[in-house]
Design brief:
The chain is an alpha/beta fold. It folds into two domains: 394 residues, ANL, N-terminal domain (Rossmann fold, 3-Layer(aba) Sandwich), CATH 3.40.50.12780; 99 residues, ANL, C-terminal domain (GMP Synthetase, Chain A, domain 3), CATH 3.30.300. Helices cover 31% and strands 24% of the residues. The strands form six sheets. A nine-stranded mixed β-sheet has the order 2-1-10-9-11-12-13-14-15, with helices on both faces. Helix 2 crosses helix 4, helix 3 crosses helix 4 and helix 5 packs across helix 6. The radius of gyration is 23 Å and the shape is globular.
């Protein structure tokens, strides 16, 4: 595949003083009738002009509802037209968007409502009861606005579309909470500038043009859905297809029928697509010829799964890395398969990456240390948590990701694991990722996660949690022997737990620490 030059979006330098509002205004003025968003379940489309018009009408509605400038507005709903209109419209209107994660549980939702201080929460029909229960759990006075999820916001026209005080690039635009797998979730605040920088990084890495169309199957409560598949189309002047949620049965029909040229998924989704035969029986390779690439993010992609996807579907798969605090993407492989390195999330794009050891010194090439990042896509702060913010940054302004990895001789970054997930067996550090990659090579494995479990002799030992393909039985002894042959006795799982599913966060990332806590007790 030949990589085409990036066109149709402004260079990052031209975006530094822009806002979500100014970019949407510009696009609506330049191409008002171009499609911006497609909602396949309802067979509806929204143009750039319509998206901008709704955003302009939302501001007086929020003001009349008692929402102040700079105030965070909560949203609890499935992906769809109303969710997208609120998500972008609040930023457009000098408010801060907060998309709540519907699968987080009542206690977590109550905490987020209480910690964020929101006074208004929009919920679609399918989440209205959950919203009310979460408000009760929060103990706060919050008004729940019930809205239709598919038909879009029903707002009166306003004569004052261009108010005299538009948002500035340094203004807060987004509040998003981390998954909270190691404690209470933290509220990450992004500005207009950092969100647009994240979108521009995606455009640059993947050479997005105004003729591209993204498929967004990740929830809008996750940074990937928000930045990669909404901000990047906004910056590139292109469009996005947004179903309510991911579906293995409908994924490829959406890609084909809606003319998608790329999509962003997580490794778990890739595994499920590979395991679903009937969904692809009516799809031919020629129908997928316009799909330039698929994009994997949010967790390491096992090389075996990566290669299997390319062999099965004939679509280039680009592994990337991004986190909530960096407005998604910080690393990406090139589009050209010849330049890609399978097993690595790639090279820095739009930001700088360095590797530091435990003493704060720069690591040599091939030496594992903590991955740190610096760039315009960094968050502004953690909400109401000065200590966590201070600890997250080095004294010279680099964000400490908590991920371990190294750079090879060509500058590609390889991630070996999370600092908090490293298994320390008998004083030796063992990367769960190394074991995961072996587990995924065993026939019949759909999902896998190596975890640390308490052990009286070693302090910690290794266990493996695996999910077999539907209808298949796993031979645990054969799997254990397979691991011993590949890893040796010391690094192989002592216990293997065969499960129906693995716990995941909002992006589909496997929650390894949750498993570790469960099987250590």
């Amino acid at each position: 595949m030949v990589s085409r030059p990036a066109t149709g979006f402004a260079p990052l330098a031209d975006l530094k003083d822009q806002t979500v509002r100014s970019v949407l205004d510009h696009g609506a003025k330049q191409h008002p009738d171009r499609v911006f968003a497609v909602f396949p379940e309802t067979h509806t489309k929204v143009t750039w002009g319509e998206q901008r018009q709704t955003a302009a009408r939302l501001r007086p509605h929020l003001t009349n509802s008692g929402v102040s400038d700079g105030e965070a507005v909560g949203m609890l709903m499935a992906n769809g037209r109303t969710a997208l209109e609120l998500f972008l419209g609040c930023m457009y209107s000098r408010r801060v968007s907060l998309m709540l994660n519907a699968v987080a549980g009542i206690d977590s939702l109550g905490y987020v409502i209480r910690h964020s201080g929101i006074r208004h929460l929009f919920a679609d029909d399918g989440h209205a009861d959950l919203a009310s229960a979460a408000v009760i759990a929060s103990g706060q006075q919050v008004k729940v606005h019930r809205v239709a999820g598919d038909s879009g916001l029903q707002l009166p026209d306003s004569q004052n579309h261009q108010d005299a005080d538009p948002p500035r690039s340094a203004d807060d635009a987004l509040l998003i909470y981390t998954s909270g797998t190691t404690g209470r979730p933290k509220g990450v605040i992004h500005t207009h500038a950092s969100l647009l920088a994240g979108g521009a990084n995606t455009c640059s890495a993947h050479h997005l043009s105004n003729s591209d169309r993204a498929l967004c199957v990740l929830p809008l409560c996750h940074i990937n859905g928000q930045v990669v598949t909404v901000m990047a189309p906004l910056v590139s002047g292109s469009s996005v297809v947004m179903p309510r949620k991911f579906s293995t049965q409908r994924f490829w029909s959406w890609v084909v029928k809606e003319d998608c040229t790329w999509f962003s998924v997580v490794p778990t989704m890739i595994s499920y697509l590979l395991a679903t035969e009937e969904a692809t029986q009516q799809i031919t390779e020629s129908q997928l010829s316009d799909v330039r690439f698929g994009r994997s993010a949010s967790a390491p992609l096992a090389p075996t799964v990566h290669k299997a996807f390319i062999a099965r579907f004939g679509i280039p798969m680009v592994e990337t890395m991004g986190i909530t605090e960096t407005a998604a993407q910080i690393l990406s492989n090139p589009l050209d398969p010849i330049q890609q390195k399978i097993g690595s999330p790639g090279l820095p794009c739009g930001n700088e990456i360095r590797i530091k050891d435990g003493d704060g010194a720069d690591c040599e090439k091939e030496v594992v240390g903590e991955i740190e990042v610096r760039g315009p896509n960094l968050m502004r702060t953690y909400l109401n948590d000065e200590q966590a913010t201070r600890e997250a940054f080095s004294t010279d302004g680099w964000y400490r990701t908590g991920d371990l990895g190294y750079k090879d001789r060509s500058g590609y970054v390889f991630v070996t694991g999370r600092i908090k997930e490293i298994i320390i067996k008998g004083g030796e550090n063992i990367s769960p990722r190394e074991i995961d990659d072996v587990l995924y090579r065993f026939p019949g494995i759909l999902e896998a996660a190596a975890i640390a479990v308490s052990d009286p002799e070693y302090g910690e030992d290794i266990a493996a949690c695996v999910v077999p393909h539907p209808g298949q039985q796993l031979d645990e002894n054969a799997l254990r022997d397979f691991c011993i042959k590949a890893l040796g006795q010391f690094k192989s799982p002592r216990n293997i737990y065969v499960l129906e599913e693995l716990p995941k966060g909002p992006s589909g990332k496997i929650q390894r620490l949750k498993l570790s806590g469960e099987y250590s007790s």
